[in-house]
Amino acid sequence: MRLRLSCPYAVLLTTLFCVACKKIIQVNLANVSPQIVIEGNVTDDAGPYQVQISRSVDYAANNVFPPVTDAVVSITDSTTGQTDMLLEVDSGVYATQSLIGQPRHTYHLLVIEDGQRYSATSTMPIPVKLDSITFEQNTNINGISMITAIVNFQDPAGVTNYYQFTEVVNGKAVPDIFVFDDRLSDGKYIEEPLFNDTAYLEPGAALLLTMNCVDENIYNYYNELSNVTATAGIQSTTPTNPTSNISNGALGYFSAHTTTFEQLYVY
């Protein structure tokens, strides 16, 4: 199953899914009181890993999201029992000190802020190697000629896998989100095109493409985000936010995932 979505909405969810780039997702909020937004990642790349904490704003307001400072933030490797107390390295940005992400390990995030406790758990899947990236040229429904990147990799047999892809073109993150699961392709060699809705690849452009192996909760998060976007396109009501895996009514996500990427020029 492939999900494609463009995200021109209002809540900033910065997905730090690779060592070289940040992905920006934006979602509409109804006219409600500010809510805490927590965005955290642990990967199998070298740390430090970051947790960003801010507060949401009314979707009609300016897109300035106040950082939450002086929170107590920790990540525990539940497999080994190691707990890392994060340091606030910038306003609302908290970084690990010694944690090393490992596949098959389960990680527990705890945030204490203004007397409230927020927690989430994520298990890092097994890594899957991105073999190569190829390109094809086609024409979209508007008659525009476009180049599409194709990711090529071997899906492991007998294991449920969830994948998420990002593109950065000439240093700028592409706002399309690509999610794929192996429900219908378990154990097969995958050649999956990543069709862009909001940006187009051009010959000679520098492309950074990242493949992340995520857990089911994060896959479902993006699945709901896709439905939110589709609903926003056909209804006048303000869509709801995707379900967070963080407790106590927080927005955002906590993801432990493996990551691999390739840098090349579009041809």
Question: How would you describe this protein?
Answer:
The protein is mainly beta. It has a domain at 2-125 and 236-258. The chain has 1 helix and 19 strands.
Give a summary of the structure in a few sentences:
This protein is mostly beta strands.
Topology:
Elements: E1 2-5, E2 11-18, E3 21-27, E4 36-43, E5 50-55, E6 72-77, E7 82-85, E8 87-90, E9 93-95, E10 106-113, E11 116-123, E12 132-139, E13 145-154, E14 162-169, E15 172-173, E16 177-181, E17 189-194, E18 206-214, H1 216-234, E19 251-265
Parallel strand pairs: 4-19
Antiparallel strand pairs: 1-16, 2-3, 4-5, 5-9, 6-7, 6-10, 8-9, 10-11, 12-13, 13-17, 14-15, 14-16, 14-18, 18-19
Essential attributes:
single chain; mainly beta; 10-stranded mixed beta sheet; 1 helix
Report the major sheet: 10 strands, mixed
Which percent range describes the beta-strand content?
over 45%
Separation, N- and C-terminal Cα atoms? 27 Å
Sheet/helix structural class? mainly beta
Unreliably modeled segments: 1-26, 233-238
Mean pLDDT level:
85
This entry's quaternary arrangement is single chain
The helix/strand series, from N terminus to C terminus, equals: EEEEEEEEEEEEEEEEEEHE
- C-alpha Rg (nearest Å): 18 Å
The total beta strand count reads 19
**Fraction in helix:** under 10%
Number of helices: 1
| Structural shape | globular
